[in-house]
Write a structure and sequence with these properties.
280 residues; alpha/beta; 9 strands; nine-stranded mixed beta sheet
């Protein structure tokens, strides 16, 4: 058992499961070992066939989404969510899907701040301008020089007028019920920090896989690995208080931000649902 757990830590739970299936162990022993590995590492990864079944049973239908849109109008607390997305040479199709995923949200009190970080290609800036003309909730920022991921994100945060800051990468997507789920969680208590589960989205957008069902708030786990990643929504006052993102941590800037904001947050809430598609 200890050997299996060590292997899971080194190569991941999914690979460990594949190895176990090739060994002459009984089915019950495989299941016990995999479950133990998942408990120790904190990861819960379903085989694709199981995940397809999960999606079928848990993805909101069009009728459910329409009902959400109506229910969202009745929320007593309707905070403005500022979604900040730094953009740099993003392929047009992927950037368009990212923006459209925000436009398709069933909760509509949001602003999308797109920060073109001095892209060397003209297409991203042109697409941003096009969408900004179509919807007043979309704000366009064009950096005069390349500030990299942390600097570009901070420019978006400075321009944000919302109560909460949400982080969205330029080639990823939010699933339609993402913001509704976040705001629903805020009705009873105004949490400082909210995060959700996530999955992976293929480049052609036709396949969803590798779901990550995260544990509830675990400070020890976060100190070990950035298990929060996506989707994270944080009170703007808290983000401002800690000084935003730090450029010296580019590459791990979100992890650094999460460590500093959760240390001062009074309430951290985990939404047990997949709200975010991380592009593979």
């Amino acid at each position: 058992m200890k050997k299996i757990i060590r292997k899971a830590k080194n190569v991941g739970v999914a690979q460990t499961k594949r190895v176990l299936k090739r060994t002459p162990k009984t089915k019950k022993a495989i299941i016990r070992s995999a479950q133990a590995a998942e408990r120790i590492t904190g990861l819960q990864i379903l085989p694709n066939n199981n995940y397809r079944r999960w999606l079928k049973n848990n993805t909101p239908t069009q009728e459910a989404l329409a009902a959400q849109a109506e229910n969202a109008k009745k929320f007593a607390y309707q905070p403005l969510i500022s979604i900040v997305t730094p953009v740099y040479n993003t392929p047009t199709r992927l950037l368009k899907e990212c923006i459209e995923s925000v436009l398709n949200q069933t909760y509509t009190n949001w602003e999308l701040i797109l920060v073109d970080d001095k892209s060397t290609h003209a297409a991203p800036g042109a697409l941003i301008a096009e969408y900004a003309k179509k919807d007043k909730r979309i704000k366009a920022i064009y950096n005069k020089k390349n500030l990299h991921i942390s600097g570009a994100t901070n420019e978006g945060i400075k321009a944000a007028k919302g109560d909460y800051i949400a982080l969205l990468d330029h080639d990823d997507v939010l699933y339609p019920h993402a913001l509704f789920s976040v705001v629903k969680s805020l009705q009873k208590y105004k949490h400082d920090f909210i995060y959700s589960d996530e999955d992976k989205l293929s480049e052609n957008s036709k396949q969803r896989s590798n779901p990550f069902f995260k544990p509830d708030w675990s400070p020890d786990f976060l100190r070990s690995v950035n298990y929060i990643t996506h989707f994270a929504v944080i009170k703007k006052t808290l983000v401002t208080k800690v000084g935003g993102l730090r450029t010296e941590f580019d590459g791990a800037q979100d992890w650094d931000l999460f460590l500093r904001t959760t240390r001062q947050a009074k309430s951290i809430y985990h939404i047990q649902d997949i709200l975010y598609g991380w592009r593979m």
